[in-house]
Amino acid sequence: MTDRSVSGWRKRLAFLTLATLLAAGSLRGDTNRLAEAVRKAGEYYRQGLHQEAEKAAAEALSILENSGGPQNFDVAASLNNLGSLVYAQGDLDRAEQLFQRSREAYQALAGPDDTRLASVLYNLAGVYVEQGRYAQAEPLYRSSLEIRERALGAAHPLVAEVWNDLGFLYLHEGKYKEAEGWLEKALGVWQSSAGSDAFAAVALNNLALLRRLQGGFDRAESLYKRALAMEEKNFGADHPEVATTLMNLAALYRAQGRGEPAIETSRLALALLEKKFGAQDPLVIETREQLRELTGAVETRGEYQILLVRTKDEAEELRRRIEAGEDFAALAARHSIDPNASDGGYFRAGASELRQELRVELGRLAVGQVSAVFPLGGNWAIVKKISEPASARQ
């Protein structure tokens, strides 16, 4: 189970930003059919009515494709806002096209220092981040930040929005110190700005992920719970954003080896999503499969942790630190190159699913024991046995 902060936080900001525009009345539906379609799509998405939002977004796209009139500010704004909705629905390629068209329109109509252009640059950078195109994303963020800071001042919520994005970019690149600085700044501004609690919840989710990756599981749990309280207050207890944070919290519990709270929290998220979207929605199906895997893993598989590094010397140093009392999960989160590192090295598997080298090493251990350093796939590993598979316990 992976933390949805990595891919889900941008979608939150996409619809939160659009909801802010709607509240400010910047989409003039009474005079513009395109803007009205975008407004309806945004309102549906804000309410968690994703199927209705998709229909309204499709209508807006159809209007755009069939319009041959000259560029104007309403069209440029609609391109940007619709791009945010399409992004939130997961269509990155279409979102990139819409943001590029909006960028070109604003550059022609308003010039390089317009705050509306800054918003488009920010959105386009977000697409590049999710596509893994970090080198293209960072300069767009920097340009957006410069425009907003000049126009709005450093304490404005829209400046904090870019700080949050830069923090996430550095988090994804493993630059934790830089990530922490930007995320803390964003959280501080949003917490002190009226009406920005929902945005603060996004920063809290990202900071929680950072703490989790650093091995600070207790701090991560506290941050997730703060985010949940904010989301329930702003959206209501049955909104999909609440489910997203519940799923992140469940992933944290799994990383700690806390199977029962992980299952309970996952079930809460699934029930919320089923109520909102129905049993056949793709996200509901995915969540149900993850819960089935989790419950099955607790009942039938062994529970283990692994720490994998490139050199024997590094592995032996980490083994000494574990023996001296340092937390295995924290060290795995900070140093391991295994895919389970962000979960504290925690994984579940049946005997038939384990590689031969792992099966041999784990077979030598009693529950609670940590292995010596051993070679694994060209790297060096340490494993810990948390529990035996069900078949081995019978």
What does this protein look like?
The protein folds into 3 domains: 184 residues, Tetratricopeptide repeat domain (Serine Threonine Protein Phosphatase 5, Tetratricopeptide repeat); 85 residues, Tetratricopeptide repeat domain (Serine Threonine Protein Phosphatase 5, Tetratricopeptide repeat, Alpha Horseshoe), CATH 1.25.40.10; 93 residues, Chitinase A, domain 3 (Roll), CATH 3.10.50. Helices cover 69% and strands 6% of the residues. It has a 4-stranded antiparallel sheet with strand order 2-1-4-3, sandwiched between helices. Helix 1 packs antiparallel against helix 10 and helix 2 packs antiparallel against helix 3. The longest helix is centred in the first third of the chain and has 20 residues. 46% of the residues are buried.
Q: How do the helices and strands line up, and which of them pair or pack?
A:
Elements (H helix, E strand, L loop, with lengths): L4 H20 L8 H14 L3 H16 L7 H16 L3 H18 L5 H16 L3 H19 L4 H16 L3 H16 L5 H17 L3 H19 L4 H16 L3 H19 L4 H19 L1 E8 L2 H12 L4 H8 L10 E4 L6 H8 L10 E3 L2 E9 L2 H4 L1
Antiparallel strand pairs: 1-2, 1-4, 3-4
Helix pairs in contact: 1-2, 1-4, 1-10, 2-3, 2-4, 3-4, 4-5, 4-6, 5-6, 6-7, 7-8, 8-9, 8-10, 9-10, 10-11, 11-12, 12-13, 13-14
